[in-house]
Structures are given as structure tokens and as C-alpha cells.
Amino acid sequence: xxxxxxxxxxxxxxxxxxxxxxxxxxxxxxxxxxxxxxxxxxxxxxxxxxxxxxxxxxxxxxxxxxxxxxxxxxxxxxxxxxxxxxxxxxxxxxxxxxxxxxxxxxxxxxxxxxxxxxxxxxx
Length: 123
Hints:
The protein has one domain: 2,3-Dihydroxybiphenyl 1,2-Dioxygenase, domain 1. A four-stranded mixed β-sheet has the order 1-4-3-2, covered by helices on one side. The chain is of the alpha/beta class. It contains four helices and eight strands, in the order βαβββαβααβββ. The longest helix has 11 residues, at 18-28. It has helices spanning 18-28, 59-62, 74-83, 86-90, and strands spanning 12-14, 31-35, 39-43, 50-54, 66-70, 94-99, 104-110, 116-122.
């Protein structure tokens, strides 16, 4: 097993409305690395951290999928969510930052398709 190395791991996130979801993730702070009619590859800056947004939707999948993004400063991300009025603009639910018992401080945002994101920092 010691020769098995990995470079990256990315999830495929479903989108009920592909264009709306692309706008949502851009406003949330991600950047599009690549896109075509069926797929958009999102990254956080030049970190290589990101996910695939697919022009595909199954309600049960979207509403049970959870994503976890570990960041250096959760309060800065939360401030951007507030400043960009993500909840109001996209009619999505957000839950303010909270210290979790698993030694992370995080907040929740649910995307327009129902995917739950936990954006967290170690604490």
C-alpha cells in the first residue's frame, strides 16, 4: 500500500439549474477552471481544491450530499457570504458559524440544488 499515492480527490456535485448553480458558486468564492455544457470544474484560487459541478440532478442525491471545505479563516468566508447576500440572492439557507464538538468552527450553506456545505476551520 505504501506505493499508492494520491494527488487530488473531487466530488461530482449535481445541479438542478446548471447556470444558477454556476453563478452561486462563483459568488460563494470559487473560480471556474474549465466548463462545457455538462460540466464545470471549480477551484478555490490556485490551491487545486475544488469539485466538479455537473449538469445533472437527482433530488435524493442532491438533498443527501454533504460537502466539507476546510479553510484557513472561516470568519472571512462567512463575511463574504453575508456581504454578497448569498442567502437572499439565491433563496438558500445559511447557518452562522458555530464551534463544533469535533474541534472545528464551521457554518452551513445549502446550495440552490439542496447540497449541504460545511465550511470549516480547525480550532
